[in-house]
Write a structure and sequence with these properties.
It contains 7 helices and 30 strands. The protein is an alpha/beta fold and about 350 residues long.
């Protein structure tokens, strides 16, 4: 059984504004890689090289960034979803455009899974259920589609329940064996109260009609990156899993697990886990503390930073201030000319200037 992959990257990322006003959320970098590159790499690592990418909002930027797929060892086919009509509709479009013509796996482009999907791909190929989904126990099931389990089987799926019915969330990885059956199921759907064709209702059709719908529970961490808080949480989880790698120039000190990319210069102090991207500079008056990612070509001239994501081409020059729990958009400048001490928390969009 040879699988195709479908990565969904058509959403507007409204909960991640202001960062997504000029950049699709799927291109926000985490440790030097755009968010969407994590699911793509998981597919390729599992032997899936023919990958469709659903684009919509700012889709041209995703196309420009990813290209034809050759640098990932894959072949990309782009499918445009003109309107946000849901996951089930995106799958329908890929079938209607004749990209999906056999068994396939859908992977949401803003999801990051700790250990990839290789073992799930193998199980799907070996056991060949009609539908196979991943579940994970969550604290706030009202944010997700959830599965009600009974005697080891899924009996019902509900999208974003308002009352507690289950804490087993669908994590945005779905396998289907037969596109024709998917289309048959889709033809019965109507838009939900959200105006979308829900993936929960699509899979519920398979359950109600007696098809084999199997599941596995993800034991490692999984992150749905939909908010600034989720973005930082994903960063922390990724940093917890990195091996140390020093390829840049160290004139100061690097303590603990850190990645310092080629072309980066560290003149100050870096306390891992931390990531210093290509061409980034940590000056002698700057301290990068734990759980920080300094993305490509950013300059930290003074001050301290902890638990924060600094995107590409940012300048931070804050003297005695300490930046905490912050996300700073691309090409922005954060500057403090006064002798102020204390902490500040910022969420700053691209091309911004913050002066104190």
């Amino acid at each position: 059984m040879k699988l195709k992959g479908l990565v969904l990257a058509g959403g507007e990322g409204t909960r991640l504004r202001p960062f997504t006003l000029s950049l699709p959320k799927h291109l926000i970098p985490l440790l030097g890689k755009a968010m969407i590159e994590y699911p793509i790499q998981h597919l390729v690592d599992s032997g899936i090289q023919d990958i469709g990418i659903i684009v919509g909002y700012l889709g041209h930027l995703i196309k420009e960034y990813l290209g034809d797929g050759s640098r990932y060892g894959a072949k990309f086919t782009y499918i445009k979803q003109e309107h946000r009509l849901g996951i089930a509709h995106a799958i329908h479009l890929a079938i209607e455009n004749e990209f999906l013509n056999g068994p396939f796996v859908v992977y949401l482009g803003d999801n990051i899974l700790a250990h990839g999907i290789e073992k799930f791909v193998r199980k799907f190929i070996d056991e060949q259920p009609d539908v196979y989904i991943m579940l994970c126990k969550v604290k706030d099931p009202s944010r997700f589609g959830v599965a009600i389990l009974k005697e080891g089987r899924i009996v019902k799926l509900v999208e974003k329940p308002k009352e507690f019915i289950s804490n087993m969330a669908m994590i945005g990885i779905y396998f289907f064996r037969d596109p024709e059956l998917v289309e048959k199921a889709f033809s019965t759907l109507r838009p939900s109260w959200r105006g979308e064709y829900e993936i929960t209702e699509l899979i519920q059709w398979f359950i109600d009609h007696g098809y084999r719908v199997e599941y596995d529970i993800v034991r490692g961490w999984w992150k749905d990156v939909g908010t600034p808080e989720g973005l930082l949480e994903a960063l922390y989880l990724l940093l917890d899993s990195i091996p140390a790698r020093i390829e840049g120039e160290i004139q100061g000190e690097v303590m603990g697990r850190a990645i310092v990319e080629k072309g980066a210069i560290v003149k100050g102090k870096v306390y891992g886990p931390a990531y210093i991207g290509k061409g980034a500079v940590v000056s002698k008056d700057a301290v990068v503390e734990h759980y920080v990612s300094i993305e490509a070509n950013s300059r930290i001239l003074s001050g301290s930073i902890t638990r924060s994501l600094i995107l590409d081409n940012v300048t931070v020059d804050i003297n005695g201030l300490r930046l905490i729990d912050s996300v700073i958009g691309r090409y922005s400048t954060i500057k403090c000319n006064k002798e102020i001490h204390g902490e500040m928390r910022l969420a700053v969009s691209d091309y911004s200037y913050v002066g104190l």
